[in-house]
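thread: overnight batch results

M.L. [08:02]
morning all. the overnight job finished for the chain we discussed friday. pasting input first so we're all looking at the same thing
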Amino acid sequence: MTLPHVDTVLFDMDGTLSSSERLALDAAVEGLGRFYAGIGEPAEIPDRGVIRGMIGLPSATYFARLVPERLRFRWEEVRRHVLELEIRFLAEGRGGTFEGTAGTLRALRRGGKRLGLVTNAGRGYFRATMDALGLDGHFGIALCIDDAPGGTKADLVRLAAAALGTRRGAIVGDKSYDVEAGRACGFATVGCTWGYGSAEELRGADVLVHDIREIPALFGVEP
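M.L. [08:03]
and the structure it wrote out:
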């Protein structure tokens, strides 16, 4: 299946463009340790596999679920500790993009596609990632969950589509939330298997791709 008539391609960030797993897990574990030390309680830190499975949730939900239900009202404190480390780790160069990301984005732009980015990340981490990885110049619009307060990823897709003048759009992402958001907005959905989500999780996508360098051809563009 190819999608040559799509005029707009929206990308998720973490696990789709940004290779953030080590950074995110290290920051979550160390940040939770700091949080529990600050409140004077024994640390209850989820297994790294559990944390990995939560990456991609809307920012407030992610930080709340890192702690037991009785502490979830303190999610902003958790975020403060974890975000401080995420920003530091990005500045230290621990993050990066998946191989072929820049070339893929350049090819799509040369091929006349409008590009946008939509992420469930909060603004602090979103901006730190965009700056550290040099992603800004590729996109006509880039939105984080704070651009749709109380909203969902589907709301971000609608905002981006309106801003870009989309007629036929597609969303590329690594989690079921991306597929669901695209379907809710009438977008074609492309699941990428190199990120946080498995092929099984992404089975509802219209197309699965296994390397970001496959994407230009999918949209009828020369690599």
